[in-house]
Design a protein that fits this description.
Number of strands: 11
Radius of gyration: 15 Å
Order of helices and strands: EEHEEEEEEEEHHE
């Protein structure tokens, strides 16, 4: 039985929104994300686009946490997930989808934030494990030990790729989509 259920790949393709990442490939199977796709054209965001913002953790993010998150992800102006990166030398992290029981595992490729801007060409892969938010730390350990590599490869193969060349002239530099 598979642990990982869904896959989304986000890339830094926009040029003006400093913390924006666009979905370039996904299994298009996770309702929490699919319902947040754009329903109207706005700036460099086309109908059907899925856009997230990756940045620092706002002070208002509190709650009952044992440790403050390293980063946060917002989608359509709302918190999607806090991102925990236990080992900064390792390109992996974990979190959970706000308001659900689902865990997120992250694989980062060239994802550096310099002067508040995500480096061009940066990639964040998100793997969802539905119903596993309470197991996110053990899942992270499986991830870094390579135990989920086959499942991750299978989800990547199922993914549908979307062209994002239209977004290269991004004019929206706020976080309100």
């Amino acid at each position: 039985m598979s642990i990982l259920t869904d896959y989304y790949r986000f890339e830094r393709v926009a040029t003006k929104a400093k913390t924006r990442l666009d979905c370039t490939s996904s299994t298009e199977s996770y309702p929490e994300f699919e319902e947040k796709r754009a329903t109207k054209k706005r700036g460099a965001t086309n109908i059907g686009d899925l856009v997230i913002y990756y940045g620092g953790v706002p002070e208002r993010f509190g709650g009952d946490v044992h440790r403050k998150a390293d980063k946060s992800i917002t989608i359509k102006g709302k918190n999607l997930s806090s991102v925990y990166i236990p080992d900064p030398a390792c390109d992996f992290g974990f979190g959970d989808v706000s308001g659900t029981a689902d865990a997120l595992l992250f694989a980062f490729h060239g994802l550096e934030v310099v002067n508040g801007s995500i480096a061009e060409g940066a990639v964040m892969e998100m793997f969802i494990a539905r119903g596993k938010s309470k197991d996110r730390v053990p899942l992270y350990n499986l991830l870094i030990d390579g135990e989920l590599d086959e499942e991750m490869a299978a989800l990547r193969k199922q993914a549908v790729t979307k062209s994002v060349t239209d977004n290269l002239t991004d004019t929206d530099n706020n976080n309100t989509l």
